[in-house]
Amino acid sequence: MSAITTRVLDVAAGKPATDMTVRLLHHNADAWGQIGNGSTDADGRVADLLVDQHELLAGRYRLVFETGDYFGSRDIDTFYPQVEVTFKVGAAREQYHVPLLLSPHGYSTHRGS
Fold first, then answer.
1. Could you say which of 27, 55, 80, 83 is the most buried, measured as most Cβ atoms within 10 Å of its Cβ?
2. pLDDT tens figures, 25-77
3. Cβ 72 vs Cβ 19: under 8 Å
4. Which residues, in sequence order, are CB contacts of 113 under 8 Å at separation 6+?
5. What is the pTM (predicted TM-score) of this model?
6. How many Å apart are CA 59 and CA 79, to the nearest integer?
7. Topology of the domain comprising 4-109
8. What are the boundaries of each domain within the chain?
């Protein structure tokens, strides 16, 4: 399993958000670079964002959730066409789970376990 994982729950629908594109970026020097991507499964999870060849380093990371595409494919208007969650990895040996609770007009996130 990836050292960085996520799960998206569509709280308006009361179920996991499936088939949402999620990208993982790492801040290196002065720029952001994509180091992984995937789509949420039937349980709303993306477990393989960080490919095995990429070493988890301390620093800043960003998850980009393509919420506009997700809601658009369901004919639902959304205020947030994209959600970006930037977080800090301090200890590279830890697991980082960053869930997203989502509705068409709001979202929240936290560090999960």
1. 83
2. 999 888 999 999 999 999 999 978 887 667 788 999 999 999 999 999 999 99
3. no
4. 95, 97
5. 0.94
6. 30
7. Immunoglobulin-like (2.60.40)
8. 4-109
